[in-house]
User: Which sequence fits this backbone?
């Protein structure tokens, strides 16, 4: 049932109720009047009509909801009771006057068919009253034509009113239909807009959730990078400390190599002097013995220095291995850092190359020191042998000269090797200084990077909190919009049910 039909049904129901109450009150008044006049026939007739009216209303109206049928039945039965009273009970002009009331009663529903039925039955009643004999037939013959004329004119006026009312109702119902159609169209457009808004809110909410998830992952990644940077900073600080120790060791080694070089030069000069002195060995045997003793002491000191130098080379070798290991760890950490660790990777490669150079230099130093140890051992043995023999025989001076020549050659080689060792030590010291400075600078850069990463992590956390708030607000807005759309759909369903 659409809203127009429902309005018509409600209007029919209300008008039927009005007709029922109006006719019932009128019948009760007439019934009481005839009882008061003690006219039993008319009183019984109206009593029966009241019972029939009640039966019709509660049967057709209340029980069966046939209010239209009740209207037709009540109008027809009312006229028929009036005509029956005129024909068979009492023909009087007072009964004819009731036809005007019934004419207005038939016009209450504003229906042409019902009104024409009532008007026709009223005319038939007037004609019956005019033709049937009555106690006051003279009065009836004088007044019925005039009353019939008034009845017809009244019917015409009432029909005009019904016609205008129907036109007005048709216009009103057409306006209602147009309004409902407009509301339905607007409701459809509004629902479509609401659906688009909900879709946009849902898309924005999905994007916010995606950004929130990405920011959480970024936050975790930045936190891990920050932790890695702190660890790298500590490792670089350790490398810088080891580099400083290496610098100190290399400086000490350079100092010792200088001293060894000087001592080798002194030994060389001494050997030359010994070679010249051997020519006068016979005359200056005591001086040669003293010189040999001094050389023996010198080689003893030299042997001690060489042994100490061997200890230093072992320390350098350990430092070189540790530096190489630290450079490897630094390269691994730089690879983990990615693009941000490229500069650090270059420094790590330089440290590794420096460690390899130092290792090669140390191996050369060890080789030279091994040669020096062998030469020193041979020289000491020969000096001891020469010391023993020079006291027993002067003829061994020629052999001593040969030994001194060999010793001089060995010392020349040792001097050259010590010079090379001193040069390498200086180069290693310079590179170690560079490694120490680069490690310190790299540690400072990594510390600054760690601080920047911590600030970035705090900013990302703040953005994450803001996105959480926005996401919660969007969820609430989406839920409210969804509820509003559900209510709109319910209202539209109600309108649709009413339009069916």
Assistant:
């Amino acid at each position: 049932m659409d809203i127009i039909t429902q309005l018509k049904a409600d209007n029919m129901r209300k008008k039927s109720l009005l007709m029922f109450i109006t006719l019932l009150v009128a019948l009760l008044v007439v019934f009481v009047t005839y009882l008061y006049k003690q006219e039993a026939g008319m009183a019984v007739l109206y009593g029966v009509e009241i019972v029939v009216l009640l039966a019709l209303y509660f049967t057709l109206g209340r029980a069966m909801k046939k209010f239209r049928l009740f209207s037709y039945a009540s109008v027809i039965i009312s006229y028929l009771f009036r005509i029956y009273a005129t024909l068979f009970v009492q023909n009087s002009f007072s009964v004819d006057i009731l036809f005007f009331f019934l004419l207005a009663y038939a016009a209450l529903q504003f229906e042409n068919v019902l009104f024409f039925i009532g008007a026709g039955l009223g005319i038939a009643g007037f004609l019956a009253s005019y033709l049937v004999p009555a106690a006051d037939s003279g009065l009836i013959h004088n007044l019925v034509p005039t009353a019939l004329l008034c009845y017809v004119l009244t019917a015409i006026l009432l029909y005009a009113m019904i016609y205008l009312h129907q036109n007005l109702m048709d216009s009103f119902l057409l306006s209602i239909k147009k309004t409902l159609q407009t509301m339905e169209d607007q409701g459809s457009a509004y629902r479509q807009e609401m659906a688009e808004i909900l879709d946009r809110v849902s898309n924005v909410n999905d994007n916010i959730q995606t950004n929130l998830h990405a920011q959480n992952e970024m936050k975790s990644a930045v936190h891990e990078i920050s932790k890695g940077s702190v660890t790298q900073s500590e490792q670089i600080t350790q490398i810088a400390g080891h580099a400083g120790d290496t610098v100190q060791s290399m400086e000490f080694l350079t100092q010792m190599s200088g001293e060894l070089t000087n001592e080798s030069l002194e030994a060389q000069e001494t050997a030359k002097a010994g070679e010249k002195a051997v020519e006068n060995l016979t005359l200056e045997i005591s001086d040669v013995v003293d010189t040999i003793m001094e050389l023996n002491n010198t080689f003893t000191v030299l042997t001690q220095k060489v042994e100490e130098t061997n200890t230093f080379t072992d320390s350098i070798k350990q430092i070189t291995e540790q530096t190489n290991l630290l450079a490897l760890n630094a390269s691994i950490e730089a690879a983990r850092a990615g693009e941000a660790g490229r500069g650090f990777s270059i420094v790590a490669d330089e440290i590794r190359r420096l460690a390899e150079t130092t290792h090669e230099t140390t191996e050369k130093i060890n080789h030279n020191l091994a040669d020096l140890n062998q030469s020193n051992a041979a020289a000491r043995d020969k000096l001891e042998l020469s010391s023993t023999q020079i006291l027993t025989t002067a003829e061994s001076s020629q052999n001593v000269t040969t030994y001194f020549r060999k010793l001089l050659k060995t010392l020349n080689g040792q001097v050259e090797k010590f010079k090379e060792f001193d040069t390498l030590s200086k180069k290693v010291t310079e590179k170690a200084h560079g490694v120490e400075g680069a490690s310190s600078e790299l540690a400072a850069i990594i510390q600054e990077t760690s601080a920047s990463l911590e600030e970035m992590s705090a900013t990302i956390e703040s953005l994450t909190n803001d996105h959480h708030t926005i996401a919660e607000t969007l969820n609430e807005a989406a839920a409210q919009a969804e509820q509003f759309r559900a209510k709109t759909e319910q209202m539209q369903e109600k309108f649709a049910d009413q339009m069916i």
